[in-house]
Specification:
By secondary structure, the protein is mainly alpha-helical. The protein has ten helices and seven strands. The chain folds into two domains: 2-81 and 261-313, no CATH class; 98-254, no CATH class. The chain has helices spanning 2-14, 24-30, 39-48, 52-56, 60-98, 101-107, 158-166, 168-173, 191-199, 241-287; strands at 140-143, 146-149, 186-187, 228-232, 235-239, 292-299, 305-313.
Length: 314
């Protein structure tokens, strides 16, 4: 991306010059304006609206081109922001329907069983099962008027104490914890929550289609038939069909649309900068007979384009 931007700027600047040097006499012959306009006004106009400085300089075609680029990228950015927002609504609704805090509480200890098909991704470096209170990631929830969290990172071990007490048998036997202790919990469903339930195996137990059976070549292709471990980005993670759909079909598409919108915003800024430079140089050159400038590409040790040297003399 950086290389393309630099090449765009270089080709633009060098379009005015022969052998990277522009003399005012040649510019005046091809310029469409002869009035002594203020170059700083031209620069300021293009800073506000790309192409405005060119129109001020009476370079109408160039001004329309910059303005068109601006409008295209504004439209493109809004289009992909809207798409991203729609996917956000989709993945939030999907998570609200398929991930449940009470199920997560109930099933946490099941995955401490070494025979569970996804146990291997829920262990600490010493191969001990990683309970929620030992992790830096957490879920926040309101209960009895207090904001609680599932780990001890803030020095509050309330959740560990309560869970260890009411679910002691489940922890001992790696089985379900049937308790009403957290029935009235209201989960704080912020950005971290929606990211965490897809990204961290700590929250795997809350998905409504988890299964304890082993996957084989036949059952793994049957929707909701089993839980399984996949290697993604050099990391093994536990998945169900719902979790996989949530992460790679909904959240991933939301992020990709936002990335495209961000790229459009980058080009908007580039368009502003190039339009400002164009308006300023052309105006300054038209008003100053001693004006000249030179551009020179900068390469690194591997002969890759890494920058642009630009000098003005008047």
């Amino acid at each position: 991306m950086k290389v393309l931007i630099y090449l765009f700027i270089i080709s633009f600047l060098q379009s005015y010059s022969f052998d990277n040097t522009l003399k005012n006499e040649n510019l005046l012959k091809s310029s469409s304006f002869e009035s002594r306009n203020n170059p700083f006004i031209a620069l300021a106009l293009s800073a506000v609206l790309p192409g405005a400085g060119q129109i001020y300089n009476k370079n109408y075609k160039r001004g329309i081109a910059y303005l068109a680029i601006e409008l295209i990228n504004i439209s493109k950015r809004q289009k992909y922001l809207d798409r991203g927002d729609n996917y956000v609504l989709e993945y939030k609704n999907f998570a609200n329907n398929h991930w449940h805090f009470d199920k997560w509480i109930r099933d946490i200890s099941i995955y401490a069983d070494e025979t569970n098909p996804v146990n291997s991704v829920m262990l600490d470096p010493d191969n001990n099962f990683f309970y929620p209170w030992n992790d830096s990631h957490h879920i926040e929830f309101y209960l009895d008027g207090f904001l609680r969290r599932t780990n001890n990172s803030n020095g509050d071990d309330w959740f560990e104490n309560i869970y260890s007490s009411v679910c002691s048998e489940a922890i001992l036997n790696n089985q379900e914890c049937l308790t009403n202790e957290f029935n009235d919990a209201e989960v704080n469903k912020d950005h971290d929550f929606y990211e965490g339930i897809s990204k961290y195996d700590l929250f795997f137990a809350g998905w409504d289609d988890t299964r304890d059976g082993e996957c084989n070549q036949e059952t793994i292709n049957e929707y909701g038939s089993c839980s399984y471990v996949l290697l993604t980005n050099n990391t093994e993670n536990a998945y169900t069909d719902n979790k996989r759909y949530y992460q790679y079909e909904l959240r991933d598409k939301a992020n990709k649309n936002y990335d495209i919108a961000e790229n459009a915003l980058t080009f908007i800024f580039i368009n502003h900068a190039v339009s400002m430079l164009d308006a300023f140089i052309v105006n300054l050159a038209g008003n100053n007979s001693d004006f000249n400038y030179m551009t020179k590409p900068i390469y690194d040790d591997n002969i890759n384009l890494s920058g642009l040297e630009f000098s003005i003399q008047w």
